[in-house]
Design a protein that fits this description.
The protein is mainly β. It contains four helices and 49 strands. The strands form nine sheets. Strands 15, 16, 17, 18, 19, 20, 21, 22, 23, 24, 25, 26, 27 and 28 form a 14-stranded mixed sheet that branches. It is globular and about 90 Å long. The chain binds zinc ion (ZN).
């Protein structure tokens, strides 16, 4: 068996060179009609979606099948993100990923529970050996769920190549019924420098879309001059789904010549955050619309551009009439066309762009440090995509670091020296980002070194020091102290912390650690008596919950089983 794997890995290397995707190698991971609530590379917060989200009929517990034979190469259980996730590596070099699972098949479940009890942790990650958990195509490997960052029951399914790059699973012959045209919802024109303008303005301009009876689009007549880029908001609905998904390909043409070809076939996890450079990030943060730029800004390392001419930017000359076209396609090649007729017109005077200036100019390609009394902010080199004036202000311990309309490539470090705090609460302080109009203090992962509190974060905004002096709360959900629980399958408690949030929890019965699965969405921890770890008649349950500044609560109860 091991020999076969090694041999097939070797020949797969030459297949990848040609971007050849086998069409009948992978079977469906579910035995229901595949309806997608999410498509590959669709636009998500700070990332492109790396797989398909397959609907599970609003239920959990659907059988999940190995899409092809192979071995379980990784199992990861985390509170957030993928929740319970299974990775199967196949002899052709691809790996399939199944995420947000409720549980695994009995054999895999036993394997992972053994590790959880050894490590005394619900969250675990393991890379089994090739011979530990071998699976056949079509074998039940897990059950669908809603664990981790999932917002409703579904199966997240991925196919990765041997360089861990996710590939659009539809390229492997997975069939999704789609005869519906993509939709264009917004279109904007961007003057790309100070000497360019659209409709007599140097500001980006929203163009009024006109939808034609055949599903194509045009816009009201525009005048422009100079270097112009465009951006659109678009999505695609598939026949069996009511929700909107992402599109597959976007191309633009200027007077018949291709300007850009954006292709959502494959990307790498290293580049997924640069989605924030692909969309108009400031527009997204203020209007909640993801405008996809049909031009490539500076410092945009994305590999999604299959072709581009002058970075997708057009040059409009005086006294010309030209036509700019956009083709938006879904995977089935249904195409919506947008036609923009442009009259080239040089103006004597245009409306200048509004601009903000401050005494804090940030150079994107340099390290920048802001210091004020007990606060320091360190931006490392290449944290930002472009130079800008930062809106920086401090009053007491509240520090304004611009706002969240500017995307960051990497974290910066914000530090407070708290040696002047002599209050008893000094050891209960944490760094919070103030969010919303009520300035809700959102815990930012805070580290402490003596009198220094610091956090690493990728979000600009307003930060403050906040004290959390309240202990976490713990209460039983499905039992009472002193109760007989012989017929119970589960033991459930609700745990919560209002200030800094829960950092850890630990549950024991008669002094022995028991596995409790934590679901942050319902604030529930659950023990499954089928783990067969509780064997006495009289049992003392003890649960300790600790928050992010170290406050802790202990809950104790007695229950009986036989
Ligand atoms: Zn997903």
């Amino acid at each position: 068996m091991r020999f076969t794997f090694a041999f097939l890995f070797f020949i797969s290397a030459s297949i990848f060179a040609q971007d050849y995707y086998p069409k009948d190698y992978f079977g469906n991971p579910l035995d229901v009609t595949l309806v997608l609530s999410g498509t590959f590379a669709e636009l998500r917060p700070n990332h492109f979606h790396s797989g398909l989200d397959i609907k599970t009929q609003q239920r959990t517990g659907l059988k999940v099948y190995a899409a092809a034979s192979g071995y379980v190469s990784r199992i990861k259980i985390s509170h957030y993100g993928y929740g319970k996730a299974l990775y199967i590596t196949h002899p052709n070099g691809y790996t399939t990923v199944y995420a947000h699972l409720s549980k695994f098949s009995p054999e895999i479940e036993a394997f992972i529970k053994k590790l959880q009890y050894e490590k005394e942790s619900f969250e675990v990650e393991v890379f089994p050996n090739t011979e530990d958990l071998i699976v056949e195509k079509g074998e039940i490997v897990a059950y669908s769920g809603n664990t981790g960052g999932s917002g409703g029951p579904h199966l997240h399914f991925e196919i990765r190549d041997n360089a861990e790059r996710p590939i659009n699973p539809l390229l492997f012959g997975i069939d999704i019924k789609d005869t519906t045209l993509p939709v264009i919802k917004e279109v904007y024109a961007y003057p790309m420098d100070n000497n360019s303008y659209v409709n007599k303005s140097n500001e980006k301009q929203k163009l009024r879309l006109i939808k034609l009876p055949n599903g194509d689009y045009t816009v009201e007549h525009i005048e422009a001059y100079g270097k112009i880029g465009f951006a659109i908001e678009s999505n695609d609905r598939q026949d069996l789904a009511y929700n909107n998904n992402g599109v597959y390909n976007i191309q633009s043409f200027f007077n018949g010549n291709q300007k850009i070809d954006i292709d959502f076939q494959r990307f790498s996890f290293d580049e997924t955050r640069h989605l924030n450079r692909f969309i108009d990030y400031g527009h997204y943060k203020t209007k909640n619309e993801r405008l996809q730029k049909l031009f490539i800004d500076s410092n945009n390392p994305l590999s999604l551009y299959k072709n581009s001419d002058n970075r997708g930017i057009i040059t409009v000359e005086d006294s010309t009439s030209s036509v700019y076209k956009v083709a938006v396609k879904d995977f089935m090649n249904n195409t919506a066309w947008l036609t923009i007729n442009i009259e080239g017109k040089k103006e004597a005077k245009v409306k200048a762009k509004d601009s903000f200036a401050s005494s804090y100019y940030i150079y994107a390609n340099k390290a920048n440090e802001l210091l004020h009394k007990n606060v320091s902010v360190e931006f490392y080199q290449d944290t930002f995509y472009e130079d800008f004036y930062m809106d920086f202000a401090i009053s007491n311990d509240t520090i304004k670091l611009h706002d969240d309309s500017i995307p960051l490539k990497k974290s910066f470090k914000l530090s407070y020296n708290i040696s002047n705090f002599n209050t008893p609460d000094a050891d209960k302080l944490y760094i919070a980002r103030l969010v919303g109009y009520k300035n809700y203090p959102w815990y930012s992962n805070t580290k402490r070194e003596g009198n220094l509190l610091y956090t690493h974060t990728k979000i600009l905004g307003t930060y403050a020091l906040v004290a959390d002096t309240v202990n976490p709360s713990i209460r039983p959900i499905n039992f009472k102290d002193g109760q007989w629980l012989s017929k119970y399958r589960y033991l459930k408690l609700k745990i919560d912390d209002e200030g800094s949030g829960i950092s850890s929890y630990r549950a024991t019965v008669n002094g022995q650690w028991i596995l409790m699965e934590y679901d942050y969405k319902t604030k529930t921890i659950t023990h499954d008596f089928n783990d067969n770890i509780v064997s006495e008649t009289k049992n003392n349950l003890k649960v300790i919950v600790t928050d992010n500044v170290g406050n802790n609560s202990t809950f104790e109860a007695t229950f009986y089983r036989k």
